[in-house]
Design brief:
By secondary structure, this protein is mostly helical. The protein is built from 9 helices and 2 strands, in the order ααααααααββα. α3 crosses α4, α3 packs parallel to α5 and α5 packs antiparallel against α6.
């Protein structure tokens, strides 16, 4: 117990080890989707899916362990998919063969922008300015952001599974779910 208190700030008067283990497993299962979705998003650019999976795992594990041991907070951290989706679908897919072409200056610039955004986000967090910005947003907008991200992730998953497909008239429609092709893509 003393070691748990020293390493993680665990207080046996406030919680139990079993509760914390169950909470950790629940958190992992809740955010494990990113191990599949993030590589799928970035693989659309032509990058190696296996390398993307490995990178996502390493980045998530490192950030989560850093949060656990340094900050002593029980938060699971993983790469943000908003900019990854922007990079993959807007920058790369609007420029055919751009990721593999010799003229990749705009893509290198886009990746640099993603890196700079990460650094700025860290600075905003360290200075508590991020918290002030979030607190300035109306509660309804804060709630809508979480719902919107969830719907976006669900949309990508349904699209990758073939459950929803492109339709020129209505933008999306139900895929052929009776043929088994949807299950084959999973």
């Amino acid at each position: 117990m003393k070691m748990l208190e020293k390493l993680f700030g665990f207080n046996p008067r406030e919680t139990r080890v079993r509760t914390e283990i169950l909470a950790g497993i629940t958190t992992f299962l809740t955010m494990a989707y990113i191990l599949a979705v993030n590589p799928n998003i970035l693989a659309a650019t032509g990058m190696d899916k296996g390398a993307l999976f490995t990178t996502t795992v390493i980045a998530s594990a490192f950030a989560t362990l850093l949060m656990a041991f340094y900050a002593k907070l029980p938060f699971g951290l993983a790469p943000g998919m908003g900019l990854n989706a922007f990079f993959a679908y807007t920058v790369c897919l609007t420029h055919p063969r751009a990721w593999r072409s010799a003229k990749r200056n705009h893509l290198q610039f886009a990746l640099t922008a993603v890196l700079l955004e990460g650094i700025i986000f860290i600075l905003l967090t360290v200075t508590n300015l991020r918290e002030k910005i979030v607190d300035a947003l109306p509660l309804s907008l804060r709630n809508a952001i979480g719902a919107g991200i969830g719907l976006f992730i669900a949309f990508i998953g349904l699209q990758n599974a073939g459950i929803i497909v492109n339709n020129d008239a209505t933008l999306i429609s139900l895929g052929n779910i009776t043929s088994g092709s949807c299950l084959a893509s999973l």
